[in-house]
Amino acid sequence: MPQIFNTKLWVILLATVLFFMLGWLWYGYLFMEKWMALEGISPDGDAPGAKPMVIGFLISLLQALGIAGIMKLANGHTVGKGLKVGFLAWLFFAVPLMAYRWNYAEGPAELFHIDIAHLLVGYLLMGAVFGLLRNPTSE
Q1: Inter-CA distances, 36 with 7, 68, 116, Å
Q2: 15, 71 Cβ separation under 8 angstroms
Q3: Distance separating alpha carbons of residues 56 and 13, to the nearest angstrom
Q4: Which has the closest alpha carbon to 68: 139, 1, 118, 11?
């Protein structure tokens, strides 16, 4: 089975799909009404086409690859290490990048909170997957 960052490809794809599905649950159900209102999206509008979904999946894949790469550098083979890597990646990369967007777009703080909370849960989820399923003997 092919590996990237000493992580089996199926594990990276699993983390990607879980992160993508978390976004679907997060923005499509849990915070849908609030998020749409804050973004100025009409609930009666058209559903997004395939292009944003494909791009969203590719962005999820890039994030999963990033967490997998950091896990390799951190020699991470436990769920605890995965959670730590996920949290630190969120704190030092995701939050500052989202803060740039929020700061310059001058959007509502509540939208920022919804977005960074999604990334926190997603990065912790991916870190846990990699900590649980990475093979320590492949290093």
Answers
A1: 36, 32, 16
A2: no
A3: 14
A4: 11
Q: Do 113 and 134 contact (CB within 8 A), yes or no?
A: no
* Nearest residue to 11 (alpha-carbon basis) of 136, 133, 138: 133
How far is 69 from 61, CA to CA, in rounded Å? 12
Confidence of residue 136 (pLDDT cuts 50, 70, 90): low
Class of residue 55 by CB neighbours under 10 A (exposed 0-12, middle 13-18, buried 19+): exposed
Q: What is the pLDDT of residues 32-89, one digit of tens each?
A: 999 889 988 887 767 778 898 999 999 999 999 999 999 999 988 899 999 999 999 9
User: What span, in angstroms and rounded, lies between the C-alpha atoms of 122 and 116?
Assistant: 10
Q: Map out the domains of the chain as residue ranges.
A: 3-138
Token pair belonging to 65: 């690859």
The token pair that represents 2 in the structure block: 């092919």
pTM of the model: 0.91
CB atoms within 10 A of CB 76: 24
Number of H helices, E strands in the chain: 6, 2
